[in-house]
């Protein structure tokens, strides 16, 4: 058989056969005087086995390991590993489909937020907040929450969103104070009022989620770059006030 004939017989392409030769999966057959490869039944059997193994999901390096072990011990090990990997993939797919089913339900009911899809924790927080106030700062707040929802590790996300539930009730007044600073310089006297209002709304535990230092190219830079100078000054001052309050509580608790 020529290369096109063996490829058609086994159900692969001539290009695949040449690739298997190149990788050493399929030994080179004898060549005719005119230089053409001449394949026999043994070549076809081996090529068919390569095809079956790749269809099971084995990589070509794994196929090479299997073919190198005549007694089949390596095949058993590889197939067991493949089975375990497929089981993990099935679990991931089931989890994703379950989440997608919930999102589809929310979307069909008209309850999917503009920030979606988001985690169940953030979805619950946004549902509790209700309609978005007519406030540019409220929009920024939701945007940063959606970003945090993605970048904060899953084990910390529930605690963070739980803390943010405590802020939701007083957020409207704080948004108004921060919106008023949109065109103000960083030394505007209203900065202190907005900072104290924001600090009063933030729970002490929020300090455990301090933003990375500015200038590191991280989330802090993204967040503060989107704020006006006076707004950024108010937020920085509020975070300092929360940290001072938490330190004072610790000192009183240890006294």
From TrEMBL:
This is MerR family transcriptional regulator. InterPro entries: DNA-bd_dom_put_sf, MerR-type_HTH_dom, MerR_fam. Signal peptide: none annotated. The keyword DNA-binding applies. Keywords: DNA-binding. It comes from the Bacteria. Pfam families: MerR. PANTHER family: HTH MERR-TYPE DOMAIN-CONTAINING PROTEIN, REDOX-CYCLING DRUG-SENSING TRANSCRIPTIONAL ACTIVATOR SOXR.
């Amino acid at each position: 058989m020529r290369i096109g004939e063996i490829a058609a017989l086994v159900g692969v392409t001539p290009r695949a056969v040449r690739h298997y030769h190149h990788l050493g999966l399929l030994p080179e057959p004898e060549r005719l005087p005119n230089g053409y490869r001449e394949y026999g039944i043994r070549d076809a059997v081996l090529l068919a086995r390569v095809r079956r193994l790749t269809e099971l999901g084995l990589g070509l390096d794994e196929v090479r390991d299997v073919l190198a072990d005549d007694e089949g011990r390596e095949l058993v090990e590889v197939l067991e590993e493949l089975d375990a990997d497929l089981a993990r993939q099935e679990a991931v797919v089931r989890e994703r489909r379950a989440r997608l089913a919930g999102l589809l339900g929310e979307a069909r009911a008209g309850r999917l937020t503009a920030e979606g899809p988001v985690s169940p924790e953030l979805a619950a927080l946004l549902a509790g907040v209700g309609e978005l106030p007519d406030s540019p700062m409220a929009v920024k707040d939701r945007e940063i929450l959606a970003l945090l929802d993605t970048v904060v590790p899953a084990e910390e996300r529930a605690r963070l969103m739980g803390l943010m539930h405590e802020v939701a009730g007083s957020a409207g007044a704080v948004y108004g104070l921060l919106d008023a600073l949109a065109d103000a310089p960083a030394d505007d006297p209203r900065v202190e009022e907005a900072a104290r209002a924001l600090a009063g709304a933030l729970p002490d535990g929020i300090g455990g989620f301090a933003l990375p230092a500015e200038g590191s190219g991280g989330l802090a830079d993204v967040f503060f770059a989107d704020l006006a100078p006076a707004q950024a000054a108010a937020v920085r001052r509020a975070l300092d006030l929360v940290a001072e309050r938490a330190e004072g509580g610790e000192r009183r608790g240890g006294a």
